[in-house]
Write a structure and sequence with these properties.
The complex is a heterodimer of chains A (348) and B (461).
Chain A lengths: L4 H25 L17 H11 L6 E4 L20 E3 L8 H13 L6 E6 L14 H12 L11 H7 L3 H12 L2 H5 L3 E2 L5 E2 L1 H9 L7 H13 L7 H16 L3 E6 L4 H9 L3 H13 L6 E5 L21 H11 L13
Parallel strand pairs in A: 1-2, 1-3, 3-6, 6-7
Antiparallel strand pairs in A: 4-5
Helix pairs in contact in A: 1-6, 3-4, 3-10
Chain B lengths: L9 H17 L3 H19 L1 H23 L3 H35 L17 H17 L8 H9 L12 H9 L7 H29 L11 H32 L17 H4 L5 H12 L9 H19 L3 H19 L1 H6 L2 H20 L3 H12 L11 H15 L12 H17 L13
Helix pairs in contact in B: 1-2, 2-3, 2-6, 3-4, 3-5, 3-6, 4-5, 8-9, 8-17, 8-18, 9-15, 9-16, 9-17, 11-12, 12-13, 13-15, 15-16
Classes of the chains: A alpha/beta (348), B mainly alpha (461).
Chain lengths: 348, 461
Amino acid sequence: MHRNPRFLRWFLVTLVGAGGLSATVNVVGNPYGEFPTDLVPPTYENELEGKVMRFERLASRPDALILGSSRSTGLPPAALREVGARQGFNFALTASATARDGSAALNWSLGGGASVNTVLIGVEADYVQKFESGGRGSRARDLVRENLEGASPGGTEWWELPGKLLRSLNVAYLGESWTSLTTRPKERADDLVIEPDGLLRHPRAEEERAAGVREAEGWLEETIRFHMGEYRNFTEPDPVEIAFLQDLVRRAIAEGAAVRIFHTPFHPDFADALVQEDIYGRVHDRLMDALLSLCAPNVHVLDFARPESYGGTTDEFFDATHTDSVAGRKMILAAHDASLDLCRPDES
Amino acid sequence: MACEALFNSPCFLFLFLPATLVLYWAVPHRTWKVAMLAVSGLVFYSFWDVRFAGLLVATAAVDYVLALRIAAGTRKKLWLVCSVSFNLGILAVFKYALFALDGFRSLFAVLGSPIEVPYASIVLPVGISFFTFKTMSYTIDVYRGEVAATRNFLKYLAFVSMFPDLVAGPIVRYRSISSQLDELPRVPQPNHLNLGLYLFSIGLAKKVLIADTIAQTIDPLWSPTATLSTPGAWVAAVGFSLQLFFDFSGYSDMALGLGYFLGLRLPQNFDAPFQASSPSDFWKRWHISLSSWFRDYLYIPLGGNRRGARRTALNLMLVMVLAGMWHGASWTFAAWGAFHGLLLLGHRALEPQWASWPSAVQKTCTFFLITLGWVLFRAETVDHALVVYARMLVPTGLTEGFALSVPVLVGVSLLVAVLFVGPLRNDATLRARHAVFAAAALFASIVMLNVRPSPFLYYRF
């Protein structure tokens, strides 16, 4: 056997080189906005940090909160003033947020000085579904949890960087970084704006829709296909996520807030596709059963799965499941309509 | 970070292994290194189940004492019988008891007088077949006078519990490791470090990059409810033989690499089995430590091929069925062993004609025969295996429900297995290109590591 010091040298050079190159791609691409580099805008704007920053900048602590997944990020807190709230804040989170994230957001907000009278929660099958680690939005979700369930959110401290770098050395993260580096910054910068009250706006999508070109790009069909693929595997709400939803509701009631939980809307074409494949019952009815089990004093449950239920129209959809702030306002107002409250059908 | 007794888990790679190596090489005295070997093995085994670390120590202690009795010279045979009975008894209780109870239930039901045998649940200690065979080989070797019984229990415990080969082999024999434990280097040897890095990296890549990728694509084909066409059944069978090879030889490479990290040279377990030119050649290349164990401790003592054709046939069949059953208490493993027994007998009968065929034909025939055997190894039940055989051998159409990428992946893996995978000789010269290749393989494996690592296939044996 021959001694060969060159082997170890080359081994280490290659290993450190590959690691360094990958780390550089991740730090520069910075797809989740985790690293203190601003060379390219993150693929996923660090919406959590953005929302936390805006929450902290509010002149007064909010008395009304909107929680939910990306489908509730378009609900304008300003509309809450029309139903008596003083200051609303939209703390709905994207990246496949679930009830656990909503619970974390509520706890963080209460810890941050909010004294809430109203909590609006937009829910759909995804919000109470168990997502495997490594799946879509996994890292973004982990960040939400790390920050909201752990220490106070904020920027990355220097001692956190090695851990973040090591965690970023996986194929999924590298893929996101590559996407981040190869997508034109203009496309992303214009695609997501967080308003001071937490409302998420998508200026590019709004422009495309106003110009009538969005539908031509096949967004509706594409998102229907995507969601159908996910919902075909959906059997029933995950008991763990339902438990988080129950905790969330209990905590809000304990704070003296009225809780209004609503099923977020499906584009009618999407709803029809679900009915046609006979899975509407699974993704809608079983969820509504779970939501109705939460009925209690100060808890209101509403079903906005069909746009007509809150006076919405198909024009207000960006895709199969996401609506604009016009629809959001209608939902906020309808959520306060006692006649639509499924917990108290006798009052309708 | 949850720790598991898996070489491909983040805890092992980034916590257990570095900490163990730092401590191991930090202690200057050999005795302490031996102690580190024993303790680290027990800690590693405890990641799976701390209770069974006790079983490991008990097994080692019993065979240690019995070996000393055997070496004392009086009633040697009695003490050897005690040792073999003890080890086989452990296997019988933990591995075969439920299978035997099921057999009794079925037998009496068939005879028309069903009996009430209570249903029980027994946890199968991981790696039990490996460490009991290790300890058995020690007492048998002492009985034969091929190795001296050690009076150093720590050293013996280190031999039994050292983590590189603890749960999935190779089945190391005391006589091959004893002198190495006595002469452990005080500091890491550069050549050992190089070989360790190379083998460990290549082994991890075999597991994470190839075996796990094949598993993802062919596992659905192996579902008992899957409807297979003839091409699909062949893809499933060939795919599994490759998955098993890359998984198990990957583990073995990692074990050898870990051995080198600790200054130990463990025996090779594979020697390019996809280049085997006959069924008997296959068993000289596949899971060598097991086949040589059965050869040395069962086949030859039974008379081997020295007592006539009929006795040789009987010996071969018995050894191969038992080797099959070693893998698990199931009729599929017994059938797999019997299948290989028949292959070996068939090859013996046709050896002159077989030898006259061109080498490529011999190798191709061997590959297809071995692949047929893996169906029994992988199937859930014998009935399931028969369904797959029917699909493989009776053409049922060419349409298939899987993507083209599946046979392409299996084909490429086969090429890699045939053309590029061979054992690393101890006198191998590792050059810069080996270093670059190994480091790239290691990095790619780490990047592809799952949060939840998949266990090695041979862990369940």
